[in-house]
Amino acid sequence: MSADVAGVDLPKVTTWLEANVAGARGPFNFDLIAGGHSNLTYRVTSATGERFVLRRPPLGHVLASAHDMSREHRIIAALRDTPVPVAPAVGFCDDPDVNGVPFYVMKFVDGLVIRDRDAAEKLLTPDARRRASESIVDTMAAIHAVDPAAVGLGELGRHDGYIARQLKRWYGQWNAQKTRDLPAVDRVHDELLARVPEQGPATLVHGDYRLDNCMVDSSGQVIAVLDWEICTLGDPMADLGLLMVYWTGPDDDQSSWTNGSCTAPGFLNRKVLAERYTKVSGRDTSQLDFYVAFAYWKLACILEGVYARYLGGALGQRDPAELEPFNQQVIGAAARAEQLLSELR
């Protein structure tokens, strides 16, 4: 059994796993796979060698709505028998006496998460990188093709006015947390609000869809989509717009919003990805630049919140100059959004 593991009450969680998850036999070994300000993810290895994954909110989390374990479990469970690849959900616990916070368990999927160019070049051949480019688009189209009502997710969120609601939410966050006035954020908000395209039927919107939130096999095929914590119903074009921000192919203009993973030879560029989505999904993507501008603006608002927390001491006492890159990212994202909108006029 593991020694003490932050975020896991070993005796109580062990008892719960053995009682509620088929095939789970202790003692268990817990290894933290991903931590930080998002949900914590642990690889759980049973005494028989069978592996699972446990997800719980971050330590010291405040907003339960931002780390809703029941919601994430519900989505993954609902998608299990659809064409969308997900790790099978096998258990959910909402009893605070077990681990202090809700958590859920899913089966372990043995695959690759490509977080940077070095990993892309070491783990994937050029042909596999091309397949990963195609598969990430095809999988997004599969997410958007799911009938929410048919899988029990018809009430996951409001169906209409997705972009307008997002603008209201994130502008409120901006005004509550901003560290200084940045008129570009206000101008872009007003321009986006005035130009919101008509939304078609609501689909599932992942909300943070990018390569390193997917797991691929050695051929590049997406075998599991991860991190469903902010999934809701809304405008599918928002997912495509955000992917265009996060993705930088080998001959794309460089972006400070990518970790460079997609720059290795073999990956496709943004234009080809967008064209493939149009073909595979059958959706109208003529307003894509609006959604890319929205994605940049939203990232500016999100990063301002991170910057404000860090200035407030979330990382301990830091020299403000050390945090200046966050400030510049906020400024850069707002400027890029405004540039894109100006080109639409």
Structure description:
The protein is of the alpha+beta class. The chain folds into 2 domains: about 100 residues, Phosphorylase Kinase, domain 1; about 230 residues, Aminoglycoside phosphotransferase (APH), C-terminal lobe (Aminoglycoside 3'-phosphotransferase, Chain: A, domain 2), CATH 3.90.1200.10. Helix content is about 45%, strand content about 10%. The protein contains 11 helices and 9 strands. It has a 5-stranded antiparallel β-sheet, sandwiched between helices. Helix 6 packs antiparallel against helix 7.
Distance between the termini: 62 Å
Low-confidence regions: 61-65
CATH level-two architecture of the largest domain? Alpha-Beta Complex
Number of helices: 11
What's the name of the CATH homologous superfamily of the largest domain? Aminoglycoside phosphotransferase (APH), C-terminal lobe
Describe the structure in brief:
This protein has 345 residues and is of the alpha+beta class. It has helices spanning 10-20, 69-79, 96-99, 117-123, 126-145, 162-177, 183-194, 237-246, 270-281, 288-311, 324-344, and strands at residues 29-34, 40-45, 51-56, 89-93, 103-107, 203-205, 214-216, 222-225, 232-234. The longest helix is centred in the last third of the chain and has 24 residues, at 288-311.
Break the fold down into its secondary structure elements and pairings.
Layout: H1 10-20, E1 29-34, E2 40-45, E3 51-56, H2 69-79, E4 89-93, H3 96-99, E5 103-107, H4 117-123, H5 126-145, H6 162-177, H7 183-194, E6 203-205, E7 214-216, E8 222-225, E9 232-234, H8 237-246, H9 270-281, H10 288-311, H11 324-344
Antiparallel strand pairs: 1-2, 2-3, 3-5, 4-5, 6-9, 7-8
Helix pairs in contact: 5-9, 6-7, 6-10, 7-10, 7-11, 8-10, 10-11
